[in-house]
Amino acid sequence: MSVARADRGNPAISLSGVSVALGARRVVQDVNLKILGGELVVLLGPNGAGKTTLLRAIAGLALAEGQLDVFGCSVKKMPVRRRATEIAYLPQNGEVNWPMSVAEVVSLGRLPFGSWRRRSFDDADDTVAQAIHDCDLSALATRSIEELSGGERARVLLARMLSVNAPIILADEPVASLDPAHQINTMRILAREAAKGRAVIAVMHDVALAMRYATRAIGLQEGRIVADATPDSFLRSGVMDRLYGIGYEMAKLTSGALTPVARI
Q: How buried is 35 (Cβ within 10 angstroms: 0-12 exposed, 13-18 middle, 19+ buried)?
Protein backbone atom coordinates (compact mmCIF):
# COMPACT_ATOMS: atom_id res chain seq x y z
CA MET A 1 0.00 0.00 0.00
CA SER A 2 1.48 3.32 -1.04
CA VAL A 3 1.32 6.21 1.39
CA ALA A 4 0.63 8.60 -1.48
CA ARG A 5 -3.11 8.66 -0.78
CA ALA A 6 -2.45 10.35 2.57
CA ASP A 7 -0.64 13.29 1.05
CA ARG A 8 0.38 15.89 3.60
CA GLY A 9 -2.36 18.47 4.10
CA ASN A 10 -5.11 16.51 2.33
CA PRO A 11 -8.06 15.10 4.31
CA ALA A 12 -7.63 11.43 5.16
CA ILE A 13 -10.48 11.12 7.70
CA SER A 14 -13.71 13.15 7.74
CA LEU A 15 -16.42 12.86 10.41
CA SER A 16 -19.73 14.72 10.29
CA GLY A 17 -22.31 14.34 13.04
CA VAL A 18 -20.81 11.05 14.22
CA SER A 19 -22.37 9.45 17.30
CA VAL A 20 -21.93 6.00 18.81
CA ALA A 21 -24.24 4.34 21.33
CA LEU A 22 -23.22 1.46 23.58
CA GLY A 23 -26.45 0.09 24.93
CA ALA A 24 -28.66 2.96 26.04
CA ARG A 25 -25.77 5.40 26.46
CA ARG A 26 -24.31 7.62 23.76
CA VAL A 27 -20.57 7.33 24.26
CA VAL A 28 -19.67 9.56 21.29
CA GLN A 29 -21.93 12.50 20.54
CA ASP A 30 -22.15 14.58 17.37
CA VAL A 31 -18.45 14.66 16.50
CA ASN A 32 -17.32 16.74 13.52
CA LEU A 33 -13.69 16.28 12.63
CA LYS A 34 -11.16 16.23 9.81
CA ILE A 35 -7.74 14.60 10.10
CA LEU A 36 -5.13 15.42 7.47
CA GLY A 37 -2.24 13.43 6.11
CA GLY A 38 0.92 14.39 7.98
CA GLU A 39 -0.78 14.96 11.32
CA LEU A 40 -0.03 13.18 14.59
CA VAL A 41 -3.24 13.77 16.53
CA VAL A 42 -3.54 12.78 20.19
CA LEU A 43 -6.93 12.15 21.79
CA LEU A 44 -6.98 13.20 25.43
CA GLY A 45 -9.60 13.01 28.12
CA PRO A 46 -10.65 11.16 31.27
CA ASN A 47 -11.68 7.54 31.43
CA GLY A 48 -15.07 7.06 29.78
CA ALA A 49 -14.75 10.16 27.61
CA GLY A 50 -15.28 8.14 24.40
CA LYS A 51 -11.73 8.11 23.05
CA THR A 52 -11.47 4.37 22.38
CA THR A 53 -15.00 4.21 20.99
CA LEU A 54 -14.28 7.07 18.59
CA LEU A 55 -11.11 5.32 17.42
CA ARG A 56 -13.02 2.05 16.91
CA ALA A 57 -15.68 3.90 14.92
CA ILE A 58 -13.04 5.32 12.58
CA ALA A 59 -11.62 1.81 12.18
CA GLY A 60 -15.07 0.52 11.24
CA LEU A 61 -15.29 -1.62 14.38
CA ALA A 62 -18.08 0.28 16.16
CA LEU A 63 -21.44 1.04 14.57
CA ALA A 64 -21.72 4.80 14.17
CA GLU A 65 -24.45 7.23 13.17
CA GLY A 66 -23.56 10.13 10.89
CA GLN A 67 -21.05 10.36 8.06
CA LEU A 68 -17.60 8.84 8.52
CA ASP A 69 -15.33 8.86 5.45
CA VAL A 70 -11.82 7.64 4.76
CA PHE A 71 -10.32 9.16 1.62
CA GLY A 72 -13.84 10.16 0.56
CA CYS A 73 -15.27 6.65 0.92
CA SER A 74 -17.83 5.80 3.60
CA VAL A 75 -16.31 3.47 6.18
CA LYS A 76 -19.69 1.74 6.45
CA LYS A 77 -19.62 0.86 2.75
CA MET A 78 -15.92 0.12 2.42
CA PRO A 79 -15.06 -3.54 1.74
CA VAL A 80 -13.41 -5.15 4.75
CA ARG A 81 -10.22 -6.00 2.88
CA ARG A 82 -9.79 -2.46 1.59
CA ARG A 83 -10.39 -1.08 5.08
CA ALA A 84 -7.77 -3.45 6.45
CA THR A 85 -5.16 -2.18 3.98
CA GLU A 86 -5.91 1.53 4.45
CA ILE A 87 -6.36 1.60 8.24
CA ALA A 88 -3.85 0.03 10.62
CA TYR A 89 -5.37 -0.31 14.09
CA LEU A 90 -3.57 -1.02 17.36
CA PRO A 91 -6.17 -1.95 19.99
CA GLN A 92 -5.91 -1.29 23.68
CA ASN A 93 -4.72 -4.41 25.54
CA GLY A 94 -4.41 -6.45 22.35
CA GLU A 95 -3.74 -10.18 22.65
CA VAL A 96 -2.32 -13.04 20.60
CA ASN A 97 -3.71 -16.43 21.54
CA TRP A 98 -1.58 -18.70 19.37
CA PRO A 99 1.97 -20.04 19.96
CA MET A 100 3.57 -18.08 17.14
CA SER A 101 7.01 -16.54 16.83
CA VAL A 102 7.43 -12.77 16.99
CA ALA A 103 8.26 -12.66 13.26
CA GLU A 104 5.13 -14.62 12.42
CA VAL A 105 2.90 -12.36 14.51
CA VAL A 106 4.36 -9.22 12.97
CA SER A 107 3.90 -10.65 9.48
CA LEU A 108 0.15 -11.00 10.16
CA GLY A 109 -0.02 -7.32 9.21
CA ARG A 110 0.50 -8.43 5.60
CA LEU A 111 -2.51 -10.77 5.68
CA PRO A 112 -4.95 -8.28 4.03
CA PHE A 113 -2.61 -8.16 1.03
CA GLY A 114 -2.71 -11.92 0.57
CA SER A 115 1.02 -12.23 1.14
CA TRP A 116 1.09 -13.85 4.60
CA ARG A 117 2.54 -17.22 5.35
CA ARG A 118 4.39 -18.64 8.33
CA ARG A 119 7.77 -17.01 8.04
CA SER A 120 11.03 -17.25 9.87
CA PHE A 121 12.78 -14.00 10.71
CA ASP A 122 15.36 -14.63 7.98
CA ASP A 123 12.52 -15.03 5.47
CA ALA A 124 10.56 -11.91 6.49
CA ASP A 125 9.77 -9.37 3.77
CA ASP A 126 11.23 -5.87 3.96
CA THR A 127 8.17 -4.26 5.54
CA VAL A 128 7.99 -6.86 8.30
CA ALA A 129 11.74 -6.80 8.90
CA GLN A 130 11.71 -3.00 9.19
CA ALA A 131 8.84 -3.07 11.69
CA ILE A 132 10.70 -5.66 13.80
CA HIS A 133 13.82 -3.51 13.75
CA ASP A 134 12.00 -0.27 14.54
CA CYS A 135 10.27 -1.78 17.57
CA ASP A 136 13.54 -3.16 18.96
CA LEU A 137 12.48 -6.79 18.47
CA SER A 138 15.32 -8.20 16.39
CA ALA A 139 16.76 -10.17 19.33
CA LEU A 140 13.31 -11.62 20.05
CA ALA A 141 12.19 -12.38 16.49
CA THR A 142 12.46 -16.15 16.76
CA ARG A 143 10.98 -16.36 20.26
CA SER A 144 7.42 -17.48 20.85
CA ILE A 145 5.15 -14.63 21.86
CA GLU A 146 4.05 -16.79 24.79
CA GLU A 147 7.54 -16.36 26.28
CA LEU A 148 7.45 -12.56 26.29
CA SER A 149 6.62 -10.01 28.95
CA GLY A 150 3.60 -7.75 28.66
CA GLY A 151 5.70 -4.83 27.43
CA GLU A 152 7.47 -6.99 24.85
CA ARG A 153 4.13 -8.26 23.57
CA ALA A 154 2.92 -4.68 23.26
CA ARG A 155 5.90 -3.89 21.04
CA VAL A 156 5.14 -6.95 18.89
CA LEU A 157 1.57 -5.72 18.32
CA LEU A 158 2.90 -2.25 17.50
CA ALA A 159 5.22 -3.83 14.92
CA ARG A 160 2.32 -5.83 13.47
CA MET A 161 0.39 -2.59 13.02
CA LEU A 162 3.37 -0.92 11.33
CA SER A 163 3.83 -3.86 8.96
CA VAL A 164 0.46 -3.07 7.36
CA ASN A 165 2.15 0.03 5.93
CA ALA A 166 -1.24 1.75 5.85
CA PRO A 167 -1.82 5.45 5.15
CA ILE A 168 -3.91 5.74 8.35
CA ILE A 169 -2.65 4.63 11.78
CA LEU A 170 -4.96 4.37 14.80
CA ALA A 171 -3.20 3.54 18.07
CA ASP A 172 -5.07 3.10 21.35
CA GLU A 173 -2.78 3.79 24.31
CA PRO A 174 0.35 2.64 22.45
CA VAL A 175 2.74 3.38 25.35
CA ALA A 176 0.63 2.15 28.28
CA SER A 177 2.70 -0.93 29.21
CA LEU A 178 6.11 0.19 27.99
CA ASP A 179 9.20 1.28 29.90
CA PRO A 180 10.27 4.94 29.46
CA ALA A 181 12.81 4.25 26.71
CA HIS A 182 10.32 2.29 24.61
CA GLN A 183 7.60 4.87 25.29
CA ILE A 184 9.80 7.52 23.71
CA ASN A 185 10.77 5.21 20.84
CA THR A 186 7.10 4.47 20.13
CA MET A 187 6.21 8.16 19.99
CA ARG A 188 9.19 8.81 17.72
CA ILE A 189 7.95 6.05 15.42
CA LEU A 190 4.45 7.54 15.28
CA ALA A 191 5.88 11.02 14.64
CA ARG A 192 8.07 9.62 11.87
CA GLU A 193 5.10 7.90 10.22
CA ALA A 194 3.14 11.16 10.32
CA ALA A 195 6.11 12.96 8.78
CA LYS A 196 5.88 10.52 5.86
CA GLY A 197 2.37 11.81 5.17
CA ARG A 198 0.32 9.28 7.08
CA ALA A 199 -2.62 10.35 9.23
CA VAL A 200 -1.88 9.17 12.77
CA ILE A 201 -4.29 9.25 15.72
CA ALA A 202 -3.24 8.04 19.17
CA VAL A 203 -5.26 7.79 22.37
CA MET A 204 -2.97 8.91 25.19
CA HIS A 205 -3.04 9.31 28.97
CA ASP A 206 0.54 10.50 29.39
CA VAL A 207 -0.20 14.13 28.58
CA ALA A 208 3.38 15.36 28.79
CA LEU A 209 4.64 12.69 26.39
CA ALA A 210 1.71 13.24 24.05
CA MET A 211 2.32 16.97 23.82
CA ARG A 212 6.01 16.47 23.15
CA TYR A 213 5.36 14.68 19.86
CA ALA A 214 1.85 15.61 18.70
CA THR A 215 1.09 18.16 16.02
CA ARG A 216 -2.50 18.48 17.24
CA ALA A 217 -4.39 17.70 20.45
CA ILE A 218 -8.10 16.95 20.77
CA GLY A 219 -9.84 16.85 24.14
CA LEU A 220 -12.91 14.66 24.62
CA GLN A 221 -15.35 14.89 27.50
CA GLU A 222 -18.58 12.91 27.76
CA GLY A 223 -18.29 11.96 24.11
CA ARG A 224 -17.93 15.49 22.79
CA ILE A 225 -14.94 17.43 21.49
CA VAL A 226 -14.24 20.26 23.93
CA ALA A 227 -10.85 21.35 22.58
CA ASP A 228 -8.98 20.98 19.28
CA ALA A 229 -5.73 22.90 18.93
CA THR A 230 -1.98 22.76 18.55
CA PRO A 231 -0.29 21.36 21.67
CA ASP A 232 0.90 24.80 22.77
CA SER A 233 -2.53 26.40 22.40
CA PHE A 234 -4.19 23.39 24.01
CA LEU A 235 -1.99 23.70 27.10
CA ARG A 236 -2.39 27.46 27.37
CA SER A 237 -6.19 27.27 27.12
CA GLY A 238 -6.75 25.86 30.60
CA VAL A 239 -8.78 22.94 29.24
CA MET A 240 -6.56 20.47 31.11
CA ASP A 241 -8.18 21.44 34.41
CA ARG A 242 -11.63 20.96 32.88
CA LEU A 243 -10.83 17.58 31.37
CA TYR A 244 -9.22 15.95 34.38
CA GLY A 245 -10.64 17.88 37.33
CA ILE A 246 -7.21 18.63 38.79
CA GLY A 247 -5.06 21.70 38.56
CA TYR A 248 -2.19 21.88 36.09
CA GLU A 249 0.78 24.20 35.89
CA MET A 250 2.74 24.71 32.70
CA ALA A 251 6.50 24.26 32.93
CA LYS A 252 8.83 25.31 30.14
CA LEU A 253 11.37 22.82 28.82
CA THR A 254 14.86 23.87 27.75
CA SER A 255 13.59 23.67 24.17
CA GLY A 256 11.02 26.35 24.99
CA ALA A 257 8.07 23.96 24.68
CA LEU A 258 5.47 23.78 27.43
CA THR A 259 4.81 20.64 29.44
CA PRO A 260 1.94 20.12 31.90
CA VAL A 261 2.67 19.36 35.55
CA ALA A 262 -0.20 18.35 37.84
CA ARG A 263 -0.48 20.35 41.06
CA ILE A 264 -0.41 17.88 43.95
A: buried
Question: Between vectors from CA 214 to CA 161 and to CA 126, what angle results, nearest 5°?
Answer: 30
What CATH number is given to the structural domain containing 12?
3.40.50.300
Query: In terms of residue numbers, what domain contains 141?
Result: 3-262
- Are the CB atoms for 106 and 160 separated by under 8 Å? yes
CA angle 227, 86, 156 (to 5 degrees): 85
Q: Can you tell me whether residue 1 is helix, strand or coil?
A: coil
- Residue 37 forms beta bridges with which residues? 8
Residue 256's identity, in one-letter code, is: G
Cβ atoms 204, 43 nearer than 8 A: yes
Parts of the chain with a pLDDT under 70: 1-10, 115-124, 264
d(CA 179, CA 150): 11
d(Cα 200, Cα 172) in Å, to the nearest integer? Answer: 11
Distance CA 121, CA 156 (A): 13
Q: For residues 109 and 128, what is the distance between their CA atoms, to the nearest angstrom?
A: 8
| Strand 40-44 with 87-90, pairing | unpaired
> Is there a contact between 32 and 224 (Cβ–Cβ < 8 Å)?
no
For 262, how many CA atoms within 13 A lie in the half-sphere containing its CB? 10
pLDDT of residue 98: 83
- Spatial CB neighbours of 7, under 8 Å, sequence gap ≥ 6: 37, 38, 197
pLDDT score at 263: 76
Indicate the angle between helix axes 126-134 and 150-163, nearest 10 degrees: 140
